[in-house]
Amino acid sequence: NAGVDQVVFIQQGGRNRHEHICESLELFASEVLPEFKDREEARLRAKSEALAPFIEKAESRIQGVERMDPIPEVESYPVLMERLGMPQEDRREGRDILSSLLGAESDERSRD
């Protein structure tokens, strides 16, 4: 047992034909992968058991959060900046450029 829990395929090294790559993947799926799947449940159970005391200790230190009643309002950055006399530049142009790159019409153009 080598303790392998990950396998990386390098299928494009050399003169591999597509059919050979597919055969290799099918062979891996039928012969090797079932072993990984069979031991995965036991590995996860052992991992959970090993971590349980640490998780329990960490969770016991979590303090509750006081309920905010009423919940305070928070101004968005554009509203706050405008109120402070720092107007924001118009960013629709950037949105229009992005829309044109994506091949979609901007909201502004579709309203015209």
Class from secondary-structure proportions: mainly alpha
Q: What's the structural domain tally? A: 2
Uncertain segments = none
Helical content (DSSP H or I, runs of 4+): 55-70%
Shape, per Cα inertia axes: flat
| Average pLDDT reading | 81
CA radius of gyration: 29 Å
Distance between the termini: 69 Å
Beta strand %: under 5%
The tally of strands reads 0
Number of helical stretches of at least 4 residues: 4
SSE ordering: HHHH
Biggest sheet layout: none
How does this model look, in words?
Helices cover 59% and strands 0% of the residues. The protein is mainly α. The chain has two domains: 1-59, no CATH class; 77-111, no CATH class. The N and C termini lie far apart (69 Å). The model has no long low-confidence stretch (mean pLDDT 81).
Which secondary structure elements does this structure contain, and how are they paired or packed?
Elements: H1 18-60, H2 77-83, H3 92-102, H4 107-111
Q: Which terms would index this structure?
A:
single chain, 2 domains, 112 residues
In short:
By secondary structure, this protein is mostly helical.
